[in-house]
Amino acid sequence: MTSRGGDTDLDELFQLPLSEFTAARNALAKTAGKDAGAIRALEKPSVPAWAVNQLYWGDRRAYDKLIQAAERLRAGHAQALSGKKVDLSTIELQHKAALKVSADLVRGILARAGDPATPATMKAVIDTLQALPGGGQAGRLTKPLAPLGFGALGALMKGRTTPRKLAEVVTFAPPKPRPSEVAEEARRAKAAAEKRLKELDAQSARLRKTLAAARTAFEKAERVRAGLEEDLQAASTELIARRGELERVEREARAIDQERARLKTT
Fold first, then answer.
1. What single-letter DSSP state applies at residue 143?
2. Given a cut of 80, is residue 170 above it in pLDDT?
3. Cα(first)–Cα(last) distance of the chain, in Å?
4. What domain range is 61 assigned to?
5. Percentages (nearest 5) of helix, strand, coil residues in the chain
6. Which of 54, 82, 167, 168 is within CB 3.0–4.6 Å of 78 for a Cys-Cys bond?
């Protein structure tokens, strides 16, 4: 990190592995002077928020494409609300495609970080991606976002804000997929599942070999230990016998010395 407590430091903080966030935040706060309290109060991101942050920092091109698609979609809805004829289906599909690319990238980010991309985690990720832009500073999210929903849409329809603001806050319901899209998605899901199954089969085969080798080494060590225990037992028995012999000889030697001393004095 560079300028203590500055934007660069905070940007780098939110790029760290999630497990390092708290320690790095506390270390940064110690050198931040008057900003120490604010930095120490920074909340550790949730897993979904952290993963979306990493998309921003690590693949800005995909992130920006998603933002641009979202802004076009919201502007399209705003124009439709104002009575203009807009091809919403096309821009909705464009946004959906950008959303899928980003979601797949985030799934990869989670996998590389060792965090399981559970259904709950991915739902929070997708909700957050759908809510972009808005709801927090890009790259520094701490919690998942959620689309604004129909309440905000209703307010827009009543004309409570300007056309420019309309484009910034209108949310949408994802369009119903076409049969061809459903079939293509199913094909991709099946291909991904088959690829993952092959990877798991290969991992399983490697683990079975490793397990067999570990079991063989363990059994060998067990045999060595058993042999050593037998040798130790035999050595202990021999030691006891030798100690007894030593004590017997020592007693005989003392008796002879005592008798010699007595005879010398007579």
1. S
2. no
3. 98
4. 47-176
5. 75, 0, 25
6. 167
Mean pLDDT of the region 122-135: 90
Mean pLDDT of 75-87: 82
Tokens at residue 48, please?
């979904």
Choose one of 176, 207, 227: the last residue of a domain: 176
Each residue's pLDDT tens digit, 225-239: 998 999 899 888 999
Q: Alpha-carbon Rg of the chain, whole angstroms? A: 37
Among 137, 126, 131, residue whose Cα is nearest residue 102: 126
Residues 6+ apart with CB under 8 A from 175: 89, 92, 93, 96
Check whether residue 57 and residue 36 sit in a common domain. Answer: no
Distances (CA, A) of 244 to 237, 239, 240, 249, 250: 11, 9, 6, 9, 10
Q: How far is CA 215 from its chain centroid?
A: 31
Query: Within a 13 Å sphere around the CA of 135, how many CA atoms are in the beta-carbon half?
Result: 21
Q: Name residue 214's amino acid.
A: A
Longest Cα pair distance anywhere in the chain, in angstroms? 142
Q: Is 261 a domain residue?
A: yes
Read off the amino acid at residue 252. Answer: E
Question: Does one domain contain both 256 and 208?
Answer: yes
> Would you give the distance in Å from CA 259 to the centre of its chain?
86
Distance of CA 107 to the CA centre of its chain: 10
Torsion sign over Cα 10, 16, 21, 25: negative
Residue 74 has a pLDDT of 87
Residues 49 and 141: beta-carbon distance below 8 Å: yes
